[in-house]
Amino acid sequence: MKSNEQSFPAEKDPKFQTGKVFGLSACHFIHDIYTSFLAPLLPLLIQKLSLSLTQAGFLSTIMQIPALMNPYIGTLADRFNARYFIVLTPAATAIPMSLIGLAPNYGVLLLLLFVTGISMAIFHVPMPVLIARFSGPSMGKGMSFYMVGGELARTVGPLAAVACVALLGLEGYYPTMVFGILASVWLFFRFRHVPQTVQAAKRESLGIVWKQIRYFMAPLIAILCARGFMHASMTAFLPTFLEQETGNLWLAGIGLTIFEGTGVVGALTTGVLSDRFGRRRLLLISLVGAPIGLFLFAVTSGGFRFAMLAVTGFTILSTTPVMLAMVQEKSKGNPAAANGLFMMSSFLARSAIVVAVGWFGDMVGLKTTYIISAAMGLFAIPFILKLPEK
């Protein structure tokens, strides 16, 4: 059998290739910096185009709609070489996101963001397949590197966007697209000889893929839903809650930095540890610690509250690389399709739950909502125990 027809297990390298994993993670960082431009530039876009808040809110939605295509993108990535789906996407994301300041009207702005959403989906679905390909026996470590790239981008991206606009103006910052274009050029030359990773005999339809992986994917989706209440309450409403509790906007900003910063450390640490101690065990530790940390964060004050915020950030955000590694390990025949199903489920759960969390906040207040979210997080535990132990 020729090398470009070998299955994923045969193509997987016997050792962790630090240079390739780090390079792919760096491209993840560059790609996701551009996707984080919208939020900090939104006030300027509202002013320029005279947008209502409803129109402004729909901008984020239009970027996320292509995520519904994730399973089908994954199926295509399994049938063709995954690198073809990855190489062009840093440029395809950077160009429209660098042009949103030039949009003459709302329709053009929607089109640019929809194109960005398609590129985001095409990038994120097959990328974990390549990360797994070069991680050898340390798949959790590889997924940790990958997730750190994305988390750092969400931390740095808003600052980069504001700095670029401050220097070049809203309509003049478009030259920043060059970094995304260079990332695509680097990906092409670095990975143009990477062979196909899936046997033709194993390229199944989406329905068959689901039947093959539902024994572990169904519990993972339930875990995503239970964790989603904690994740949504922290990522969407943390600054608001802290400002209400302390009356200090600076402390609210510091709190978000603590949450995201400890999440980066958690994403790096837990994935590595899961290679040694097992995926299920690390998920259980994280999703027992997260509800406890969130509850204590909500009901305490002062320095101890911020210590519990660090615990909450570390545990909540540390679970994604572990779950990504598990998806790749358990779906070796159709890894991109399985990751597409996982990412679509994550998107749907997150989109629905953040609305529910906001409704709870309106009805009973954010403090009580945080306590409810912590209690909902405990429902992940029985589903973790349903996951395969090895």
Description of the structure:
The two termini are 30 Å apart. The chain is built from 19 helices and no strands. The protein is an all-alpha fold and 390 residues long. It folds into two domains: 200 residues, MFS general substrate transporter like domains (Growth Hormone, Chain: A, Up-down Bundle); 179 residues, Growth Hormone, Chain: A. Helix 14 packs antiparallel against helix 16. The longest helix has 41 residues.
Entry keywords:
390 residues; Growth Hormone, Chain: A; disordered N terminus; 79% helix; 19 helices; 0% strand; mainly alpha; 2 domains; globular
How would you sum up this structure in a few lines?
The chain is mainly alpha-helical and 390 residues long. The protein is 79% helix and 0% strand. The protein starts with 7 loop residues before the first helix and ends in a 6-residue tail after the last helix.
